[in-house]
């Protein structure tokens, strides 16, 4: 495993670096002005920083307590990381970014979000309640040269756990999920019950379903007959939450260095491990491709957002009845979407979540919205058609670009 990840750095490093640099320049010179003009950051995600483009691929691990998240990271990197705590009780009560560095150490959350070289600065919006539970464990490690891992607190059951955290746990998970290259949901073969908070977390991951991989861990602790029943129960539970037409891919195994308790399925576990490890090993090379994909998605969303905001501005009366008109527009936002989709020939699937958009619109003054500026839209359209298309051609992995090219159709 270690050799697979250590050898997974992109061979065409110079080409990838050029693409990243190009995306960064395009964002700050062409896309950011459009975002600023229509308050994009108030409704969606904060502005990107240079560190967002230069960051290494990130793997986010999520699961209920004692499912083996921390042990999983240790198994992958081959050694303990600073501040590691492993035990049967809930041991990880913090978000821990495990990153590569020349020295071993721990950076507290408040200091970490002030570091311009790392991509975590926007997390400061979640306040001290979160920052006191956030840290970076850094160390020299061959695997970490290509991938950053995010260990998360174990999810417990009960409403009390959500309240007692002192910060928006689901909001933090959503922010990390948007920037992660891979999201691994870990389940313990002995504990398949999905708590209310875990269900809420999975709900906020739905816009990033393509990044999700599911691991049924500690599978050697049960025999073959029990494993079949556990696997079926897990698939049934996930089917009620994920609501996707595709069957979720579940990797079965025991990701630790201990001897197997039931070794009947040893061959199966080895094959499953290799499948998962191969998937993770592609992340450093595909990281640039993912950033390009996310950039195009963000551009499309910013463009649609501009049309929505400018339409609402245009529909507002200049004198009397502003409050009633605002309420009417918010309540009929689906009709606004349909109108813009029809007139601008934009797929309805490109529009933001209507319920969340209505919530944000409630607290905004429509008088502060900007009218449509066709010049800004044209700059972004030209950027997608020309500059971004050139960046696509610069990526050596032509075979992997079919999905990206499809986005232009």
TrEMBL record:
Spell out the Pfam families in the cross-references: DUF5600, Dynamin_N, EHD_N
* Membrane-related topology note: Peripheral membrane protein
Gene Ontology, cellular component aspect = early endosome; endocytic vesicle; perinuclear region of cytoplasm; plasma membrane; recycling endosome membrane
GO MF: cadherin binding; GTP binding; metal ion binding
- UniProt superkingdom: Eukaryota
- Where do the coiled-coil regions begin and end? none
Localization annotation: Cell membrane; Endosome membrane
Q: SUPFAM superfamilies of this UniProt entry?
A: P-loop containing nucleoside triphosphate hydrolases
Sorted UniProt keywords: Calcium, Cell membrane, Endosome, Membrane, Metal-binding, Nucleotide-binding
Q: Which PROSITE patterns match?
A: G_DYNAMIN_2
Q: Show where the Dynamin-type G domain sits.
A: 53-285
**Biological process annotations from GO:** cilium assembly; endocytic recycling; endocytosis; protein localization to plasma membrane
Q: What is this protein called?
A: EH domain-containing protein isoform 2
């Amino acid at each position: 495993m270690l050799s697979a990840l250590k050898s997974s750095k992109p061979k065409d490093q110079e080409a990838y670096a050029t693409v990243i640099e190009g995306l960064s320049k395009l964002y700050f010179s062409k896309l950011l002005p459009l975002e600023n003009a229509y308050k994009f950051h108030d409704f969606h995600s904060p502005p990107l920083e240079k560190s967002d483009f230069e960051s290494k691929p990130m793997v986010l691990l999520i699961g209920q307590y004692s499912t083996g998240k921390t042990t999983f990271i240790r198994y992958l990197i081959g050694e303990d990381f600073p501040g590691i705590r492993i035990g049967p009780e809930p041991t990880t009560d913090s978000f821990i970014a495990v990153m590569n560095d020349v020295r071993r150490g721990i950076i507290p959350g408040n200091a970490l979000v002030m570091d311009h070289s790392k991509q975590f600065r926007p997390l400061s919006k979640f306040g001290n309640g979160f920052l006191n539970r956030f840290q970076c464990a850094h160390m020299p490690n061959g695997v970490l040269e290509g991938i950053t891992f995010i260990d998360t607190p174990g999810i417990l059951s009960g409403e009390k756990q959500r309240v007692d955290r002192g910060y928006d746990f689901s909001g933090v998970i959503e922010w990390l999920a948007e920037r992660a290259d891979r999201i691994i949901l870990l389940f313990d073969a002995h504990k398949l019950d999905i708590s209310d908070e875990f269900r809420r977390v999975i709900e906020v991951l739905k816009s990033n379903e393509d990044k999700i991989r599911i691991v049924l861990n500690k599978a050697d602790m049960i025999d073959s007959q029990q494993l079949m029943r556990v696997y079926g129960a897990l698939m049934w539970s996930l089917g009620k939450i994920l609501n996707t037409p595709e069957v979720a891919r579940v990797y079965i195994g025991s990701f630790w260095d201990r001897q197997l308790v039931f070794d009947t399925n040893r061959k199966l576990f080895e094959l499953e491990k290799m499948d998962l490890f191969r998937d993770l090993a592609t992340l450093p090379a595909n990281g640039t491709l993912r950033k390009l994909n996310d950039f195009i998605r963000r551009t499309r969303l910013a463009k649609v957002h501009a049309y929505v905001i400018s339409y609402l501005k245009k529909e507002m009366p200049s004198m009397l009845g502003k409050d009633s008109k605002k309420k009417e527009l918010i309540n009929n936002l689906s009709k606004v979407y349909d109108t813009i989709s029809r007139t601008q020939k934009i797929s309805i699937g490109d529009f933001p979540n209507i319920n969340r958009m209505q919530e944000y619109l409630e607290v905004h003054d429509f008088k502060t919205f900007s009218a449509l500026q066709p010049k800004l839209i044209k700059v972004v359209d030209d950027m997608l058609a020309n500059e971004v298309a050139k960046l696509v051609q610069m990526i050596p992995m032509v075979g992997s670009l079919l999905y990206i090219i499809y986005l232009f159709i």
